[in-house]
């Protein structure tokens, strides 16, 4: 169904521009990874706190409020550097199962982070049981790392 | 320069000829498994280093006193560093000559040494008076350490990602 759109990306002048340059694509990949580190750090700092480790003297709500801007900046950076890679490799991505796993899990992880996880993290202290906090953190890490990061790396390794 | 590197080259060559190294680089899935694991471990290490550097710059995690953030994230940073180093060393073990002849690999190694010196210098030059700025925007020395840390680790990641692009291959 989406194949014509992927074909169009594949044939676009943007794809042509990227593939004609020696540096653009590798540097884009590299900067994508720097934003991944920023994004992962801002997710993990709260997930580790929800697990009951990390910055334990600080309230969950404050860790959540401090980390949210960096989650957003990291995510926007990942999208900005990810889209050119998609355009450049459109047909490879279209036929990659890992790409589609990533694309299905990504919206779920995003919605989860800004609804359930956010609600639990910002709840008044003592209103959410530690068990629930831990489950929320584990699900967050499974979605982001198991469902998005790992499949992403596998796209390039198994095509 | 090349004479100076000869002993290193000999070690890399010896490893490359070992049975396990050959098995690793010819494996269908094991090599890839470590590539994936290396990225995930990097997320833990670099991610939490970045969180600390943002606090040092005075632009992130400002509601937490620096000493507390440093103390509580340190074990996780060390865990991330240990796991990243193990998975990274296994990758080098599996294909040493590919890394030996790669400028980006040596760039990455050098930048990591400089980043470690930066962390060490900060600890001994600026961290001792943390009490006076623990709840505030850190002083210039600490900001500088944060900026250097952020920049250096970003370049470590960038040079690591560029290793597959062997533009300057020269055996």
Mind explaining what this structure looks like?
The complex is a heterodimer of chains A (159) and B (171). Chain A is built from seven helices and no strands. Chain A is mostly helical. Chain A has one domain. In chain A, helix 3 packs antiparallel against helix 4, helix 3 runs antiparallel to helix 7 and helix 6 packs antiparallel against helix 7. The two termini of chain A are 21 Å apart. The mean pLDDT of chain A is 97. The two termini of chain B are 14 Å apart. The relative contact order of chain B is 0.14. Chain B is mainly alpha-helical and 171 residues long. Chain B contains seven helices and no strands. Chain B has one domain. The mean pLDDT of chain B is 94. The longest helix of chain B has 29 residues. Chain B is elongated and about 55 Å long. The interface between A and B is large, with 39 and 35 residues.
Mean pLDDT of chain B: 94
**What does the main sheet of chain A amount to?**
none
Order of helices and strands of chain B: HHHHHHH
**Structural class designation of chain A:** mainly alpha
Radius of gyration of chain A: 18 Å
Number of domains of chain B: 1
How far do the termini of chain A sit from each other? 21 Å
The total count of helices of chain B amounts to 7
Oligomer: heterodimer
How much strand of chain B?
under 5%
Rounded to an integer in angstroms, the radius of gyration calculated over CA atoms of chain B is: 19 Å
How many structural domains are formed by the residues of chain A? Answer: 1
What would the keywords be for this entry?
heterodimer; A: 159 residues; mainly alpha; B: 171 residues; 7 helices
Topology:
The complex is a heterodimer of chains A (159) and B (171).
Chain A: H1 3-11, H2 13-20, H3 24-50, H4 60-88, H5 90-94, H6 97-122, H7 130-157
Helix pairs in contact in A: 3-4, 3-7, 6-7
Chain B: H1 2-17, H2 19-26, H3 30-57, H4 66-94, H5 96-100, H6 103-125, H7 140-162
């Amino acid at each position: 169904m989406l194949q014509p759109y992927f074909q169009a990306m594949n044939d676009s002048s943007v794809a042509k521009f990227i593939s004609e340059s020696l540096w653009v694509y590798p540097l884009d990949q590299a900067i994508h990874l720097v934003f991944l580190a920023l994004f992962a750090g801002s997710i993990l700092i709260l997930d580790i706190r929800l697990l009951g480790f990390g910055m334990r003297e600080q309230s969950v709500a404050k860790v959540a409020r401090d980390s949210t801007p960096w989650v957003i900046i990291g995510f926007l950076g990942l999208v900005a550097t990810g889209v050119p890679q998609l355009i450049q490799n459109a047909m490879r991505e279209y036929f990659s199962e890992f790409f589609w796993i990533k694309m299905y899990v990504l919206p779920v992880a995003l919605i989860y982070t800004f609804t359930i996880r956010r609600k639990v993290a910002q709840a008044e202290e003592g209103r959410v049981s530690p068990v629930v906090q831990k489950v929320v953190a584990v699900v967050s890490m499974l979605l982001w790392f198991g469902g998005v990061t790992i499949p992403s790396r596998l796209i390039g390794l198994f095509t | 320069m090349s004479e100076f590197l000869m002993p290193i080259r000999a070690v890399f060559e010896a490893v490359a000829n070992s049975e396990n190294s050959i098995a690793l680089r010819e494996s269908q899935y094991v090599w890839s498994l470590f590539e994936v694991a290396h990225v995930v471990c990097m997320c833990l290490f670099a991610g939490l280093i970045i969180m600390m550097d943002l606090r040092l710059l005075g632009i992130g995690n400002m509601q937490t006193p620096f000493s507390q953030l440093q103390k509580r994230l340190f074990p996780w940073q060390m865990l991330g560093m240990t796991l990243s180093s193990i998975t990274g060393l296994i990758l080098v073990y599996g294909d040493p000559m590919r890394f030996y002849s790669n400028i980006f690999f040596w760039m990455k190694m050098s930048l990591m040494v400089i980043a470690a010196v930066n962390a060490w210098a900060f600890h001994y030059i600026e961290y001792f008076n943390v009490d006076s700025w623990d709840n505030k925007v850190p002083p210039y020395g600490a900001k500088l350490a944060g900026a250097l840390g952020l920049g250096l680790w970003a370049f470590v990641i960038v040079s690591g990602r560029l290793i597959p692009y062997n533009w300057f291959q020269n055996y």
